[in-house]
Write a structure and sequence with these properties.
about 240 residues; alpha/beta; Alpha-D-Glucose-1,6-Bisphosphate, Chain A, domain 3; about 30% helix
């Protein structure tokens, strides 16, 4: 197979169609499983339009290697990292292109304990396995793998535990005056998590008002790609 240019030093990112697609995602998942030899993996995905199909391809690849998949649904990368550690699973994959253009997507991979996998800790090896592989898929699955040998698939919600963990860092006795907190979710996956955090603040009686902008998850990114490095993307938050 040809070289996979979507592999970078610390993650996997590529232009859709030319560098990354469902077939490549499937091969990466099987390579990840062959390298790590996990029993259980958590999967999450951001709001980009291609994230659900790429995540499904990853799930099929993992399951065809006998790995049990725990799907977290719409999540930010931090929620996949948390769930990997919190659930005591063997690794995790987040489907996300972060701040890259809309025609990109990618994956962030971690192993047990939410330890990131980079080029020198396994990503290069996973790339070699994926580049050498080839599968003839039927409905996204390998017909050579018996159904009884495939891993299980389960939807799992860890957001409440994630928020509880975050609240553990806050000294609730230190709030001596009302505060306003501006949160720009960039129309990404963070919006629902921010809502859950806001609810936790309210339940704890904390005097914090959330000012939420670009809040609704929208894979078309109507307010621009959520990249705060771009000067033109800062005004909305600055002026809120």
């Amino acid at each position: 197979m040809s070289a996979l240019t979507c592999f970078k030093a610390y993650d996997i990112r590529g232009q859709l169609g030319t560098e990354l697609n469902e077939d490549i995602a499937y091969r990466i998942a099987r390579a990840f499983a062959q390298f790590l030899k996990p029993k259980r993996i958590v999967l999450g995905g951001d709001v980009r339009a291609t994230s659900p199909t790429l995540k499904a391809a990853l799930a099929n690849g993992l399951r065809d290697e006998g790995v049990n998949v725990l799907d977290l649904g719409l999540t930010g990368t931090e929620e996949v990292y948390f769930a990997t550690f919190h659930l005591g699973v063997d690794g995790g994959i987040e489907v996300t292109a972060s701040h890259n253009p809309i025609d990109y997507n990618g994956f962030k991979l971690v192993r047990e304990g939410a330890r990131p996998i980079s080029a020198d800790t396994g990503l290069a090896a996973i790339r070699e396995i994926a580049e050498a592989s080839s599968y003839q898929l039927v409905d996204g699955k390998d017909p050579a793998v018996a159904e009884a040998d495939r891993g299980n698939y389960e939807l799992v919600d860890t957001r409440a535990d994630f928020v509880k963990h975050l609240m553990g860092y806050i000294d609730t006795t230190a709030f001596d005056r009302p505060l306003k907190l501006v949160v720009n979710a960039g129309n990404g996956a963070a919006g629902p998590a921010v809502d859950a955090i806001e609810a936790a603040f309210s339940a704890a009686g904390l005097p914090v008002t959330f000012i939420k902008i670009c809040h609704e998850p929208d894979g078309t990114f109507p307010n621009g790609i959520p990249n705060p490095i771009l000067v033109e993307n800062r005004a909305t938050t600055r002026d809120a």
